[in-house]
Amino acid sequence: MKKRPLRIKDIAEILQISVSTVSRALRDTYDVNPETKEKVLALANQLKYKPNFNAAALASGNTKNIGVVIPFITNYYFSTVISGIQEEAYTNGYNIILLVTNDSSERELSMIKNLSVTSLDGLLVSISSNSVMSNHFQELTEEGVPLVFFDRVPDDIVASKVLQDDFSGAFQATEHLILHGYTKIAHIAGSEHLSFTQRRLQGYVSALEKYDLPVRKEWIIYSGFSQQCGESDMNILLNMKEVPDAVFAVNDRKAVGAIQALKKRQIKVGSEFGVVGFTNDPISTIIDPALTTMEEPAFEIGKMSCSLLIKHITNKHFLPKEIVLPGRLIIRDSCLGASSSLID
What we know:
Elements: H1 8-15, H2 19-26, H3 34-46, H4 53-60, E1 65-70, H5 76-91, E2 95-100, H6 105-113, E3 122-125, H7 135-142, E4 147-150, E5 160-164, H8 166-179, E6 185-189, H9 195-210, E7 220-222, H10 227-238, E8 246-249, H11 252-264, E9 274-279, H12 283-286, E10 292-295, H13 298-314, E11 322-325, E12 328-330
Parallel strand pairs: 1-2, 1-3, 3-4, 4-5, 5-11, 6-7, 6-8, 8-9, 9-10
Antiparallel strand pairs: 10-12
GO molecular function, one term: sigma factor activity
Domain HTH lacI-type: 6-60
InterPro entries: HTH_LacI, LacI/GalR-like_sensor, Lambda_DNA-bd_dom_sf, Peripla_BP_I, RNA_pol_sigma_54
C-alpha cells in the first residue's frame, strides 16, 4: 500500500503546536519564535518532509489572481454570482480564474489537488452536489490558504461562508402556496448531500407544521437540479395513489420541468395545481404561466464572497465569518389557486 505523504498537520501534532505556526515557520515568516522555527525545520528535515508548493503558493498572497471553483458556468445563478465576484475583484485589482467542476466531486478533488503552482492568492468555492468529503479543502485551510465558500457550502469546515437565507425563503414559498388554498403540497428537492437542500427542506416542513398540514415523506423527492429532473420528479408525484395539489421546487429549472409535466397531462397550472420555485431565473418569466419564485441575491453573494476573500488574503488574522443574505418572493401566475380564508 502506498504510504500517505507527510503533512504539516503531522509535524504540528508531533511538536504540539498549531498547524498555522508550522506553516509560517516553513515559509520563514517574521512572526514565528526563532526556537520554534528551528524545531520545525529540524523535524521537517529529519522526516524528509516535502512541502505542498501549491498550497504554499496559494497562501503567499501576491499574484493578484483569485480562483473560483463552481459547479456550472452556463447556469444563470452561477453566472450572476461570477458577475458579482468579477465586479469586486476588478475594483480591488484582482483577476479571477474559473475552475468548473461540472458538478463532479471527482473533478473537484482533482482540481484542488493539482492547483497551478504560484498562480493564485486564494479560492472562492461552491462545492459539487455529490461532495460528501471535504478533506481536500480542510487541508488547504490548515495550511493557511485563504478560502471562502458560497452558496453550496460544507458544514464541517470552519471558514468564511456567504449564502442566501434558504430556510426563510423556503418557508415563504411554501406559506405562499398555503395562503392561496393549496393543502397537499409536495417538495421536489435537490441533492440530499447539500446543506442548502436540507435548509430548504426544513423551511418547507416548518411552514406545513405552522398550518397543521401533513408532512408526507413520499411527497419529498430528491434528485438533480435540471429541468429534466423536475419533470421526472413531477411525473413520479402524479403517478402516486394520492396526488398533491401543489409543489415547491428547490430551484426554478426543476419548477419549469414540473410545469411541463403538468401541462402534458392537461392539468391547469396556477388554478388546479400551484407551483413555486427558487432563484428567479429568466426562464421563470418565459414559461407559461409565469413562475412564482424566491429571488436569490446572486450578484450580492458574489460581491460579498470576493470581498471576504480579499480580507483574508490581506489580513492573515481575519477571523472567519458566515453571512446570510435574504431573498425576495416574486409573485406571478403559477400559484393563483382558490383563495383561502387565511388571505383575508
